[in-house]
Design a protein that fits this description.
Elements: H1 3-13, H2 29-39, E1 51-57, H3 60-75, H4 83-95, E2 98-105, H5 114-132, E3 138-142, E4 161-170
Helix pairs in contact: 2-5, 3-4
Bound molecules: flavin mononucleotide (FMN).
Flavin mononucleotide binds near residues 141 and 142.
C-alpha cells in the first residue's frame, strides 16, 4: 500500500454509515468472518485480547431488542422513560442486517488497568471499521449511556465483561456526506529543544 492509498483508507473509507442508508442486501457470513479476523490483530497489553463480539442476525436480533428494552427499563429513571424511544431503537435493531455487541472481557487476574482493555477493544473496533468499505459494507458505533454502564446489558455477556456499545452493519446506498475534523495542528505540541 502506498501513502495515497493509506490516506484514502483512513480519511475517506473509514467513515460512519448510519442505518437510514442501509439496503436490504444481506451481508454474507464470510464477510463478517473477515471482519473478526482483522479485528483480532489489534494491539493489546499482556496479550489479554480483551475483545469479545456478540453477533445478532436474523431472528437473533429479537434477543438484542429485548436486552435493549430490559436495560433501558433498569437504568433510566421511571419518570424519564419514553416508550417512543424504545420503539425507535427496536426498529433500528430489526432493520439492520447485523448488529455486533462490542464487549470488553477482563482477565481473571486483572493484570492490567481496565482503561487499557477498553483501549484495546477500541483498537479492534478500528481494525474492523477500516475493513468495511473494501468489503462493500458500512456501519457505525452506537454507545447509548444506559447500555454501556457497568451493567449486564447483553444477556450473552459473562461475569467479567462490560458492553462498550453496538456496531450496526449493512450494505448501503449512502451519499458522500460532508465530514469535518478540526485542525490537527491545534492538537499537537512539538517538543524538540
Ligand atoms: C466510542 C464511540 C462511540 C460512538 N457512539 C456513537 C453514538 O452513540 N451515536 C452516534 O450517532 N455515533 C456514535 N459514534 C460515531 C461518531 O459519531 C462518528 O464516528 C463521528 O460522527 C465521526 O464520523 P465518522 O466516523 O464518519 O468520521 C461513536 C464513535 C465512537 C468512536
Amino acid at each position: 500500500m502506498n501513502l495515497n492509498e493509506l490516506n484514502q483508507l483512513i480519511r475517506k473509507d473509514r467513515k460512519s454509515v448510519f442505518p437510514q442508508f442501509f439496503t436490504d442486501k444481506p451481508i454474507s457470513r464470510e464477510t463478517l468472518e473477515i471482519l473478526f479476523e482483522n479485528a483480532n490483530w489489534a494491539p493489546n497489553h499482556a496479550r489479554t485480547e480483551p475483545w469479545r463480539w456478540v453477533v445478532y442476525r436474523g431472528e437473533g436480533r429479537q434477543e438484542l431488542a429485548k436486552d435493549m428494552e430490559r436495560t433501558y427499563r433498569d437504568n433510566v429513571a421511571p419518570e424519564k422513560q419514553d416508550d417512543k424511544k424504545i420503539a425507535k431503537v427496536t426498529d433500528k435493531i430489526l432493520n439492520a442486517d447485523t448488529i455486533i455487541g462490542i464487549v470488553m472481557h477482563r482477565d481473571e487476574k486483572e493484570r492490567i488497568p481496565e482503561w487499557e482493555e477498553v483501549a484495546a477493544v477500541a483498537m479492534a473496533v478500528q481494525n474492523l471499521w477500516l475493513s468495511l468499505d473494501t468489503l462493500g459494507i458500512g456501519g457505525y458505533w452506537a454507545s447509548p449511556g444506559y447500555f454501556t454502564r457497568d451493567t449486564k446489558s447483553l444477556s450473552r455477556m459473562g461475569e467479567r465483561e462490560r458492553c462498550l456499545g453496538l456496531f450496526f452493519l449493512g450494505h448501503h446506498a449512502a451519499p458522500e456526506l460532508p465530514r469535518e475534523r478540526g485542525d490537527w495542528r491545534e492538537k499537537v505540541q512539538w517538543v524538540e529543544n
